[in-house]
Write a structure and sequence with these properties.
The chain has about 150 residues and is α+β, with helices and mostly antiparallel strands. The chain is built from five helices and seven strands, in the order E-H-H-E-E-E-H-E-H-E-H-E. The structure holds coenzyme A. Coenzyme A (COA) binds next to strand 4, helix 3, strand 5 and helix 4.
Length: about 150
């Protein structure tokens, strides 16, 4: 298994993993178009040529980036792959000079185990919540905002 930057040819497999969870209301839907347009933000985990997990890092502001579209193929769940992807995205954030990463998640326990702290949504830049207005789950999506400081790492 290896983690690498995503390529355009991975988009359909990424979409399939994300849609599985979105259909189960465990994460938000993401169109093929949105994945193509943001493919440079994605990393994937590959096993024998098959994409088994994905995640993305989206820079929001000078000191802040969001971990997005994190998903592990159900067959490979609870083997530490999600944690490995988060750590890689945190490294990528550090390389970019970003000091804090956050996630909006229906699975706060997963992120808490990785050291993330629940924060108030109001502490995130307003533009992040501004985007929520366009989501069909607005205003009661149930996503929990969590954040981690990368300064000491
Ligand atoms: C959340 C997700 C990425 C975790 O991936 P994973 O590879 O299974 O996670 P890990 O094996 O690294 O888990 C590390 C720890 O997080 C916690 N954890 C993981 N999945 C969890 C879940 N579904 N519910 C509660 N805690 C969870 C556990 O404490 C786990 O440790 P343990 O297995 O020793 O108890 C995966 O379940 C997934 O794709 N979920 C659907 C999409 C999603 O919720 N994405 C996150 C928000 S963008």
């Amino acid at each position: 298994m290896k983690i690498r930057a995503a390529k355009v040819k991975d988009v359909k497999e990424i979409h399939k993993i994300v849609e599985y969870y979105a259909d189960n209301k465990e994460m938000l839907h993401r169109s093929l178009n949105a994945i193509y347009e943001n493919i440079q933000e994605f990393i994937v985990m590959e096993n024998k040529g098959k994409i088994i997990a994905c995640g993305a890092l989206h820079v929001s502001w000078e000191d802040l980036a969001e971990i997005k579209a994190l998903a592990v193929n159900k067959e490979y769940a609870r083997h530490g792959l999600g944690s490995q992807l988060v750590h890689q995205l945190e490294k990528n954030a550090k390389t970019l000079g970003v000091e804090k990463v956050f996630a909006l998640s229906f699975k706060p326990k997963f992120f808490k185990k990785l050291g993330y702290k629940i924060i108030k949504k109001e502490s995130l830049p307003q533009k992040i919540w501004g985007e929520c207005i366009n989501c069909h789950l607005f205003p009661d999506c149930g996503e929990v905002p969590l954040q981690l400081s990368l300064r000491k790492r």
